[in-house]
Amino acid sequence: MKTILEYVSTVTDHRQQHKVLHKMMDIIMLVFFASLAYADDWVEIEVFGKEHEEFLRRYLELPNGIPSHDTIQRVFAMVSPEFLEIFQSE
Questions:
Q1: What CA–CA distance (Å, rounded) separates 42 from 27?
Q2: What tens digit of pLDDT does each residue of 51-70 get?
Q3: According to the 3-state scheme, what is the secondary structure of the chain?
Q4: Rounded Cα gap, residues 79 and 27, in angstroms
Q5: Domain residues of the chain, as ranges?
Q6: Distance from C-alpha of 61 to C-alpha of 48, rounded to nearest angstrom
Q7: pLDDT at position 84, please?
Q8: In this predicted structure, what is the pLDDT of residue 73?
Q9: What global pTM score does this model have?
Protein backbone atom coordinates (compact mmCIF):
# COMPACT_ATOMS: atom_id res chain seq x y z
CA MET A 1 0.00 0.00 0.00
CA LYS A 2 2.81 2.36 0.89
CA THR A 3 4.35 1.93 -2.58
CA ILE A 4 1.08 2.77 -4.31
CA LEU A 5 0.53 5.85 -2.12
CA GLU A 6 4.06 7.04 -2.82
CA TYR A 7 3.60 6.56 -6.55
CA VAL A 8 0.24 8.34 -6.66
CA SER A 9 1.71 11.29 -4.77
CA THR A 10 3.95 11.94 -7.80
CA VAL A 11 1.04 12.72 -10.15
CA THR A 12 1.25 16.19 -11.69
CA ASP A 13 -1.77 18.30 -10.90
CA HIS A 14 -2.47 20.85 -13.63
CA ARG A 15 -5.54 22.36 -11.99
CA GLN A 16 -5.69 25.99 -10.93
CA GLN A 17 -4.59 25.59 -7.33
CA HIS A 18 -6.74 28.41 -5.94
CA LYS A 19 -9.84 26.47 -7.10
CA VAL A 20 -8.78 23.07 -5.75
CA LEU A 21 -10.81 21.60 -2.88
CA HIS A 22 -9.80 17.95 -3.24
CA LYS A 23 -6.30 16.56 -3.61
CA MET A 24 -5.68 14.72 -6.86
CA MET A 25 -3.98 11.90 -4.96
CA ASP A 26 -7.08 11.47 -2.78
CA ILE A 27 -9.33 11.26 -5.83
CA ILE A 28 -7.12 8.71 -7.60
CA MET A 29 -6.94 6.54 -4.50
CA LEU A 30 -10.69 6.86 -3.90
CA VAL A 31 -11.26 5.53 -7.42
CA PHE A 32 -8.72 2.76 -6.79
CA PHE A 33 -10.37 1.62 -3.53
CA ALA A 34 -13.89 1.90 -4.96
CA SER A 35 -12.87 -0.09 -8.04
CA LEU A 36 -11.60 -2.87 -5.79
CA ALA A 37 -15.10 -2.90 -4.28
CA TYR A 38 -16.62 -3.20 -7.79
CA ALA A 39 -17.89 0.37 -8.06
CA ASP A 40 -18.14 0.87 -11.80
CA ASP A 41 -19.34 4.43 -12.34
CA TRP A 42 -18.67 7.86 -10.88
CA VAL A 43 -21.83 7.93 -8.75
CA GLU A 44 -21.02 4.53 -7.21
CA ILE A 45 -17.50 5.76 -6.46
CA GLU A 46 -18.89 8.80 -4.63
CA VAL A 47 -21.33 6.62 -2.68
CA PHE A 48 -18.52 4.20 -1.79
CA GLY A 49 -16.44 7.12 -0.54
CA LYS A 50 -19.21 8.46 1.66
CA GLU A 51 -19.98 5.01 3.08
CA HIS A 52 -16.31 4.26 3.81
CA GLU A 53 -14.96 7.72 4.62
CA GLU A 54 -13.69 6.71 8.05
CA PHE A 55 -11.64 3.86 6.52
CA LEU A 56 -10.38 6.05 3.67
CA ARG A 57 -9.11 8.67 6.12
CA ARG A 58 -6.57 6.11 7.36
CA TYR A 59 -4.77 6.54 4.02
CA LEU A 60 -6.06 9.81 2.54
CA GLU A 61 -6.27 13.35 3.84
CA LEU A 62 -9.69 14.26 2.37
CA PRO A 63 -9.50 17.85 3.70
CA ASN A 64 -12.93 18.71 2.28
CA GLY A 65 -14.56 15.30 2.55
CA ILE A 66 -15.54 13.07 -0.34
CA PRO A 67 -15.71 14.86 -3.71
CA SER A 68 -18.85 14.76 -5.82
CA HIS A 69 -19.11 12.31 -8.68
CA ASP A 70 -18.79 15.22 -11.13
CA THR A 71 -15.53 16.33 -9.50
CA ILE A 72 -14.19 12.77 -9.48
CA GLN A 73 -14.95 12.37 -13.19
CA ARG A 74 -13.51 15.77 -14.14
CA VAL A 75 -10.28 15.29 -12.19
CA PHE A 76 -9.80 11.67 -13.22
CA ALA A 77 -10.05 12.70 -16.88
CA MET A 78 -6.89 14.78 -16.36
CA VAL A 79 -4.76 11.82 -15.27
CA SER A 80 -2.79 10.28 -18.09
CA PRO A 81 -3.48 6.62 -18.89
CA GLU A 82 0.25 5.92 -18.76
CA PHE A 83 0.35 7.07 -15.14
CA LEU A 84 -2.44 4.64 -14.26
CA GLU A 85 -0.84 1.63 -15.95
CA ILE A 86 1.02 0.75 -12.73
CA PHE A 87 -2.28 -0.40 -11.20
CA GLN A 88 -2.65 -3.03 -13.90
CA SER A 89 0.76 -4.48 -13.14
CA GLU A 90 0.29 -4.61 -9.35
A1: 11
A2: 999 999 999 999 999 999 99
A3: CHHHHHHHCCCCCCCCHHHCCCCHHHHHHHHHHHHHCCCCCHHHHHHHHHHCHHHHCCCCCCCCCCCCHHHHHHHHCCCCHHHHCHHHHC
A4: 11
A5: 21-89
A6: 16
A7: 67
A8: 96
A9: 0.83
